[in-house]
Design brief:
- The protein is an alpha+beta fold.
- Among the domains are: about 5-220, no CATH class; about 400-545, Heat Shock Protein 90.
- About 65% of the residues lie in helices and about 10% in strands.
- It has 14 helices and 7 strands.
- It has helices at about 5-35, 50-70, 75-100, 130-140, 155-175, 190-205, 215, 220-250, 255-355, 365-395, 405-415, 415-420, 440-455, 515-525, and strands at about 400-405, 425-430, 435, 465-470, 475-480, 530-535, 535-545.
- The protein has a 5-stranded mixed β-sheet with strand order 2-4-5-7-6.
- The protein is elongated, with a radius of gyration of 47 Å.
- The two termini are about 45 Å apart.
- The relative contact order is 0.05.
């Protein structure tokens, strides 16, 4: 896997290298303009860099820079491709001159060079291997940002080939092997050009580190880890060893046979050290991996053990809670049921007392008895509602397929007197078949419609609409009315037991009805909520799983 940070870092390096290439190209051109020999070659024994190559470096460097930094903008990407194509064309034309003995007039297009310059077959004509490198570099930049799978690694392959040509030339300069940088009868590639080409091909390789074979090199795998550390050593160390061996031979410290034997010995020693370091590192990684696997295995065993124990505790706690709930529900049911009898007795005796001593009681006494009887009746209603609330969870339920159209009809039949007296207009849309308890669903619809009728302005005809629609894995029901509505700040409180928004002299009730509807919906695995506008009406929503 290649991390995003590494990808960004390598892309940034590619951008910096492209800028360096442009600056070097400009520096070489300055050398031509002002005839500064140091900017053209490091000394009289070295080939001079040709002006066409310097121009091509500026073009290639700018192309890479534009594609890397402005590639998302089509205009800049096109400019970059055009610049790369011009460099590619310069390379093609120069190769044609070599292969077919032509003089196309491009060699001295920008600057003139006298005949007889060191390692130059034709005045100001770039080296054959430099023109090959221009072709490879131009093509590599042209296909650098192609997203097609089979072509994503082509740019890197071209850069790798160009890099080999450049490294061979640099080796030739390092070890006086002129055949590697100067083919007979052809112009020799300048050492400045050789180094600059290495920078160009490095930039192309690093431009897309998340693609091609570079993906392995910069990955976070073990292979990528070792490649990044060993590859520079493999390139640099043998080079240094060979150069030191050559110096020893040149200074007469030993002859060629001894020098080559010494070189081979040090290369074997170097590779042995690399092998030892690699083996040691792999062993440490394996040890660490085994330790991690062992710790992971132990953690899994401990986790499994803690999970059997946790499940047992949860099971015990669940049984205890279920038992406690059943006891509480039974207690509430029995207590509520038993409380109704003394209340009825109090009401009856108060009414008997009033009838028997009617003539002996003054108006205040009659009023007090009325208050007491009314309070007892309200208490009886509250206890009755508490019994209903308790039955929602205490009684055994039978879930089956229910036609909610029939559920609505039964609820309206129970509310017939209330509907007739209020003149309420009740409409509905298509209602689905659901899975639920028939008695509870009737009670749910009945409570919601009953509330809608009750909380309507005096003299206003209640209009109520019941609807349902399927949403994903549940049905969404709604009961809308044109009643008095309520302030939005109360919407989260209305389902709390005994929570009332009105006094008894305004609207009668115990404040348990909506709490019961919430319990019923929860029993069916759904949710209930309301939306309302004060003075305009309310809509109650509830869901039932499909």
């Amino acid at each position: 896997m290649v991390t995003k940070t590494k990808t960004v870092q390598f892309k940034e390096i590619a951008t910096y290298l492209s800028v360096i290439v442009v600056l070097l190209g400009v520096l070489f051109l300055v050398g031509w303009i002002f005839n500064i020999q140091l900017f053209l070659s490091p000394g009289s024994d070295f080939s001079t860099i040709k002006s066409n190559v310097a121009v091509a470096f500026v073009l290639i460097g700018l192309a890479i820079f534009l594609i890397q930094t402005k590639g998302s903008i089509p205009k800049y990407r096109l400019i970059g491709k055009i610049l790369a194509f011009i460099a590619f064309l310069i390379g093609i034309l120069t190769v044609s001159e070599y292969l077919f003995g032509l003089n196309l007039g491009i060699d001295q297009l920008f600057f003139k060079e006298v005949a007889g310059v060191l390692n130059t077959s034709s005045p100001n004509r770039m080296a054959f291997n430099a023109s090959i490198n221009l072709i490879l570099a131009g093509l590599a930049v042209l296909v650098m940002d192609i997203k097609i799978d089979h072509f994503q690694g082509l740019s890197q392959v071209l850069a790798f080939l160009g890099g080999l040509v450049s490294i061979l030339a640099l080796l030739g300069y390092s070890f006086n092997a002129s055949i590697l940088y100067h083919l007979p009868q052809f112009t020799g590639i300048a050492i400045y050009a050789t180094v600059t080409f290495i920078l160009i091909f490095s930039a192309i390789l690093l431009a897309n580190p998340d693609r091609g074979f570079m993906k392995l090199l910069v990955s976070d795998t073990i292979g990528g880890y070792f490649a990044r550390r060993v590859l520079p050593l493999i390139i640099i160390v043998p080079w240094v060893l060979g150069f030191l061996t050559k110096l020893g031979i040149n200074y007469g410290l030993y002859d060629y046979s001894y020098g080559y034997a010494l070189l081979i010995f040090f290369i074997i020693l170097f590779l042995s050290v690399i092998l030892g370091i690699t083996s040691y590192s792999i062993r440490n990684i394996e040890k660490e991996r085994n330790k991690v696997n062992h710790d992971l295995k132990q953690s899994k065993m401990e986790l499994e053990k803690a999970k059997e124990e946790l499940e047992e505790k949860v099971k015990e706690r669940t049984i205890a809670l279920e038992t406690s709930n059943k006891e509480l529900e039974h207690f509430a049911y029995v207590t509520s049921h038993d409380l109704r009898e003394p209340l009825r007795m109090i009401t009856s005796f108060l009414q008997l007392l009033e009838r028997k001593y009617d003539s002996d009681l003054d108006d205040d006494a009659h009023e007090y008895i009325g208050f007491a009887v009314d309070g007892a009746k309200r208490m009886d209603e509250m206890i009755n509602d508490l019994l209903e609330y308790s039955r929602v969870t205490s009684e055994e339920r039978v879930f089956k397929n229910l036609d909610t159209q029939k559920i609505l009809d039964e609820a309206l039949l129970n509310l017939k007197v209330t509907v007739d007296e209020s003149g309420a207009i009740i409409t509905h849309g298509d209602l689905p078949v659901i899975r639920g308890d028939e008695k509870l669903m009737v009670q749910l619809i009945q409570n919601l419609i009953g509330n809608a009728i009750k909380y309507c302005e005096a003299g206003k005809i209640p209009k109520i609409h019941v609807a349902a629609k399927k949403e994903h894995d549940h049905y969404l029901f709604s009961v809308s009315d044109n009643g008095i509505g309520m302030d939005s700040k109360h919407l989260t409180k209305i389902f709390t037991i005994f929570r009332r928004l009105h006094r008894n002299d305004e609207y009668d009730g115990t404040g348990i009805g909506l709490a019961i509807t919430q319990k019923i919906v929860q029993q069916h695995g759904g949710n209930i909520w309301a939306e309302s506008t004060l003075g305009e009406g309310s809509t109650f929503y509830f869901t039932v799983p499909v």
